[in-house]
Design a protein that fits this description.
single chain, alpha+beta, 5-stranded mixed beta sheet, 25 strands, binds zinc ion
Length: about 500
């Protein structure tokens, strides 16, 4: 989602971010050197998972394990924290160093993340910084062998910009009511094919590719009028004097995002998941509409794709100016102008909810393969309209995709869908990754039929849940479902112009 640059683009764009890496996130390693999480950790993390998914977290998990203990100050717009990461090398080769990403330092994000101390297994080290102080190389005394773990201890302060600069991404921001702090912590970098991805992300779309991780987060902040909203679930709250302290378990998530806000919420629980929508008091009716859309969407996606594996989903508005909506794991940011100015507001909400399946639960390399999540997420809007028996809306959605692609072709700008975001123009990005990729999904459906398409969505979810995949994963699921080859179709829509 997200359309920092795509002013013509109609609604939700999402900023994608996250993920990557691959392979089984929960594989069992029989070596004794792996830092298994403790039994109390398992119980703590399971508190964020839907009742059907608690066993997705086991003590054998070797996903990155973050413990963050910090203080949030809305006056200084800061998070000051101590963080521990237990990181296990799940590749087959030794790692010479560990890569970190400091997203707040990106010029387009406009904040700062300053590391005040970095230790590896208890010993202080001196990290080195790449351009924009985004990528950080943490040296190791000796290479981290396959299957071995290392513990990083990092102290840092992150500062968010205000919303005065409309050229910024707008996600990390203080708007006078809400301090939004996505990717505010030092994050393990993305290992693409065993190599740390050091590139400055292209910000015309999502910027975070991440592997599933676990986060145990303790935050302190002012108690008067403020609420912490975050990825995962708050498992304890304590208020002493004017300070509140919350402890949050993420469950298996690709990132940890949170906000401290004075907004009030409306909530509803559906199918074992509580949805909280935080919106401007002056637009309470629209907040109710957003809640209704999310409440309707979740059971539809549970049925058509697979069960949402978390207990909670939060949707919060922010006065940031530069995007429509952006998905984060278990957490959605909506630009508050959309609450009054977007005739496609319902589709915007549905789109960002759909990203919880295609982006968070099933991950992809958002910089290289943005179509993988955006195409299917766009398609969730159609699934939603059809499930709610709105044939006119559904026909309009398909028509829009076709017209969008036709316009790109008429301008002579049609191009290959499966290419890095950085290789596309803004117009190409918004049409290829959203409309053309959704039309590819629709072409698959038309070719294999309703029964096989329905089976393909479900088996794609089951096979790809918690992993990072590329476009061949859905193709494989569809081919298995139809007992046919989709190579020609895939080549036509995704690999060729
Ligand atoms: Zn999107």
């Amino acid at each position: 989602m997200h359309q920092l640059f795509n002013n013509h683009y109609r609604q939700y764009t999402v900023i994608v971010f996250m993920w990557v890496f691959c392979l089984c996130l929960l594989h069992t390693d029989t070596s004794t050197s792996v830092a298994a999480i403790t039994a109390p950790d398992v119980l703590q993390q399971r508190q964020a998972m839907h009742s059907s998914a608690v066993n997705d977290i086991q003590a054998t998990s070797t996903v990155p394990y973050y413990t963050i203990n910090g203080t949030v100050n809305p006056t200084t717009r800061t998070l000051t924290a101590a963080q521990t990461i237990v990181y296990t090398n799940r590749t087959s080769v030794a790692l010479a160093n560990i890569g970190l990403r400091l997203y707040p330092n990106l010029t387009d994000v406009g904040g700062t993340c300053i590391l005040t101390s970095v230790k590896v297994d208890g010993s202080a080290v001196t990290p080195t910084y790449g351009p924009q102080r985004y990528f950080v190389t943490v040296p190791l005394a000796k290479p981290l062998a396959a299957g071995k773990s290392v513990t990083l201890q990092i102290s840092f302060t992150t500062t968010a910009p205000t919303n005065a600069d409309t050229n910024l991404f707008g996600t990390l921001v203080w708007d006078g009511t809400t301090l939004s702090l996505p990717y505010a912590y030092p994050m393990i970098a993305y290992l693409r094919g065993g190599v740390w991805d050091t590139a400055i992300p292209d910000s015309k779309g999502d910027i975070v590719t991440n592997e599933m991780s676990l986060y145990d987060v303790t935050l302190r902040g002012p108690s008067s009028g403020y609420t912490f909203v975050s990825t995962g679930s708050t498992v304890s709250t304590q208020t002493v004097g004017s300070t509140q302290t919350v402890r949050i378990s993420s469950g298996l998530q690709r990132d940890f995002t949170f906000a401290l806000t004075k907004l009030s919420k409306k909530s509803q629980t559906v199918a074992g998941t509580t949805i909280n929508v935080y919106g401007p008091a002056s637009r309470a009716a629209v907040t109710t509409s957003a809640l209704a859309a999310a409440v309707a969407a979740i059971p539809i996606f549970n049925t058509n794709i697979g069960q949402y594996p978390y207990k909670e989903l939060d949707i919060i508005s922010v006065d940031a100016g530069n995007f429509w909506g952006i998905e984060f794991p278990g957490f959605v940011l909506i630009e508050q102008d959309q609450y009054t100015n977007n005739p496609s507001f319902e589709s915007l909400i549905v789109h960002e909810v759909g990203h919880q399946w295609f982006y968070n639960i099933i991950g992809n390399d958002v910089q290289r393969d943005a179509f993988v999540d955006e195409g299917l997420t766009n398609y969730t809007e159609l699934l939603y309209q059809q499930a709610r028996k709105r044939p006119t809306d559904a026909a309009g959605t398909i028509r829009y995709w076709k017209e969008d692609l036709a316009a790109l072709r008429a301008a002579g700008n049609d191009a290959v869908v499966d290419q890095p975001m950085s290789a596309m123009s803004d117009d190409q990005y918004s049409t290829l990754v959203y409309s053309k990729a959704a039309l590819y999904i629709h072409a698959v459906r038309l070719q294999i039929g309703e029964k096989a398409f329905s089976a393909a969505l479900k088996s794609y979810y089951t096979a790809s849940k918690y992993r990072i995949v590329d476009g061949t994963a859905f193709r494989s699921a569809a081919q298995t479902a139809c007992k046919c080859s989709l190579t020609t179709l895939y080549t036509k829509w995704i690999l060729q112009k």
